[in-house]
Model the fold of this input.
Amino acid sequence: MVTVNSLIKPLINQNLVTAKNMVQREVGRPATKYFFNYDAERYLLCTIQEELNPQLGHNDLVIKPHVVNMAGTILSTGVTTDFSDYTRSTPADALRQALQLDPTVVAVGLAFPGKIDHGVVQSS
Done:
């Protein structure tokens, strides 16, 4: 019990773990329930992918930004940026705009198109 408490206390102080109400068991002391706080940190994930352009009737490359929590749940989605008319500033401008979605973002992940097999993206 002493070891568990010494390990869990820093996680609670960092808000990575939350302690909930005590649960009385049939025998022994009440137990504290601990839960991982998936909303403690947020990440910006940007994918470069093909998306149908209905006006032109073909696929264009776009950058799609999403802010996610540590469980991967999408919390917000940013503006899709056209990547087909690429300039040197396109990725930086899209990233700057996407970072405005949530000022608490601690890391950024970028996914580039990878292997496509039978029309399905297999890796990025």
About this structure: Residues 2-13 form the longest helix (12 residues). Helices lie at 2-13, 90-99. Residues 85 and 109 are 22 Å apart (CA to CA). The chain is about 20% helix and 45% strand.
